[in-house]
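Researcher: For the annotation table, I need structure tokens for Gliding motility protein. Please keep the output clean. Sequence:
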Amino acid sequence: MKKYILSLAVLSLFYTESRACAWSDPDYEYFNLFTQSIIKDKSYLPFLLTYSNRFYGDYKGMTIPDDNIETWKKFFNNQLNYAETENLVYKISMNDLNALKNGNPGNPLLQKLGTGFYQKYKEGIDYLIEAKYLEPYMSINYVESSDSFYNSGPSKSLNATSIDYAKTVNALTSLYNATRNPEIKQRYGYQLVRFNHYTRNYDAALEAFKTYIEPIKQKGTVYFMALDQLAGAQRGKEMNSDANWNFFQVFMNSKDRKESAFVSMKLSDTASFSNIMKRAGTNDEKNMAYFLLGYEGFNNPIPIMEKMYDINPDSEILKVMAVRSINELERSYLPIYYYTSDATDSPNVMRGNADDHDKTSKDSTAEPAEAKKEEKLSFWQKIVRFFKNLFGGSKSDGANGDKNKQSDDELLNNPDRIPFYTKSSYGYDEKTKDYLDDLEKFAEKTAKVSKDEYWQIADAYLKFLKKDYKTSTEILEDIKTTNPEYLEEIKRMKVLNDIVSHPKIDAEFEDHLMKDYADYFVKKEIKKDSTATSDYDYYGETPSTADFLKDVLANRYFLQGEDGKSFLMNNKLSDLQYNPNSSLVKSVEDFYKKPNKTQFEQQIIAKNMDNVGNIDAFFSMIYGDRAMKQADFEKAKSYYEKAQSFAGIPRMNYDWTDKGEVITPKQYAPGEYNGFKDISNLVFGHNMWESFGSAETESMEAEDYSAFPFIKESMNKLELTDALIQLKKISAGTDEKAAKANQLIGNLLYNTSSLGYYRQLFVMDIDNSNGGKYDFWNTDRKNPYKYYYKNFLYTTYIEPDNFDLAINYYQKTLKLSQDKEQRARVLFQMASAEQGKYYQYEAKNQVNINYSDPKYSEKEQAHQNELDNIRNEKYRTYFAQLKSQYADTETLKGLSGSCSYFGYFLRR
């Protein structure tokens, strides 16, 4: 049972994590290159494909025609336009209409129409007056069910039972009998059916339809409005089959009621669409029934589409089915992100606490932090392995970092290096490929017989997905249409075919992009008041064609070895601070310094060289930091000398006010570490206990610096390298001072590693929490990204620590020092660094056990036992030495009390 519960938790985690944010919208996770809404009949817009809502709702300014308004517009002989008719029918008050009737209209629209308007359309205006009187009451009265879990009504203070039943029926009947215009007469009949339905007089509603609607031999908008009410009454009488059939007729014959009719069908009959198919008599009814069956069970709609094709290949609803199928394929082929790391490669599937690797804690009652770390890691291993086994991982990158040696053919033919239209984490498999093949054949066949150019466009797009850009373009060139939506789609697809078909992007092609397609890359700036606040948008802008093309180019640059350009297609220069790995930084700098940039490089790529202060100082800071991590202090100094104008790590403050979110650049206070200055000499000290959230004076203890007056109380990085260079010279000696110098250098290297309190100093961070600086990667590749850098901020990668650098300096201290207490302290520091080496080993030696394996727990425990044995045999060298040789030291006694994971080891 425990294993079953964990699987539910894992599935829940995958749902949110795969969407990048818990509030993510799946309709924002692909590029929408084929516009679903180009279907001509906009009444089917709600039935386009969406995974975010029950019905599609992104109409982008398009509206579904209102049958009632169009009918009234025709009744008034088109004297009013659509908006004016809507105003008259839905918005102008009953009092305004009475004023018109009395010859003194006050409403501007009614004044414009004049007093003669009432005389001309007297029966229609009188009906609207009566309808506006009734409308506030036209909702069904809420009746609490004995089976209700809680009281959820009434939702309105007024309903149909709020007015006198007999008086209302008599009035409507009298008006019906007095009216001569059959359409208006039928409208009064509609009100009678509706009123009886809403007062739950279901038998009277059925009788009213038979008496007042059917005798008027008109099956237009009003008839189906009344039929909708009749079906509701039939559902109230549990005449579910008849109700369902009538809702189906409303669905077929109305424009604006399709969505509500569909819901009503679902509520009326659990086997609704199958039963409708049994009753369908005409080809139109059968065609619509097939549509509903295909819509409801959308696993593979092509067999249903074949049946619809046999009935009518020009059917509009057949196009709806096709565009839904195309959209489904887009989601498999064109996700907005490619998460390229194997699940166990990446520590960011669900990041742990910043103190995951803490060895000690202020809370002496807490369990040993080492054991806690191993337990957490094991838990997340289970999760990520479940992900990998269930959803599959990406293939390993055989090319590793050797991208520059690829040939043109490799760029085109290596499917694992070109993400678009190949495998993705969103479920592409051979069945998806078969689906694409079948849909393409269907589109080809239909395009030959249909009069609608839609099918040619669909065929061209499916060939685009199959990377047959030449044929796709030829089809597009042959299409003759005047439909503006079709023309826009054709134009977009031609651009896609042109750009995506180029495996390499050189200066000539970049000039072509700027000359012919600049609109897709030059984002129009929207001027905004600098003091204004921003509205928070959970999702951001819907992915667009421009976004897709930008990703294609980022992928091509990546494959060509132009990592800097690839990075800047999707990121700003300041983003390098979060994952400052050396090879990428160097490539970005090379682009920055590149002379004679093309217009595309200048206007599209270089614009992301945003404000980091002095750009040269920004690069020098990253290089200096990396040199420090490698213990090359002289090299670090040469870079820090060039970084003295460094403006501080570029961060933004995000504040919430009653007007929204306010974003301002972070201003570093005097004495605050900004990435370069104000570094305490405690960086040469050691832990009192390990608590990353405590102040440095609480967590760290200074060593005796009296022999080294060049170590200042507060230093910038240039001064720090000066001190280290002097310490390094002293460390070459053979006396106790040399021993201490080696210890201080070892302390600094450990304290600035992923396990140290000052782990932020040399990875472009401002404090020791968050980020990837405490992650242990298991990749041997210098660059963990495979396709592009779009998800750069979603993946943490900082080059691994070399713990041997600190250990080597400590070894020299052990060799030279005669002070047993000092040797004990150094051995503990070495043991701590050795734990870092174990964590790195553990991360590189994971096993993939299928979570569905009935022996999963046994195999997982066996693997953990193997890791435990290796840790104890190979990575506890200095712990064992401390325990066996220094048990009588004050240092060891103090560590046993203050360091929980050392005490945990001693008890083993």
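Researcher: And a one-line annotation?
Model: Residues 820-844 form the longest helix (25 residues).
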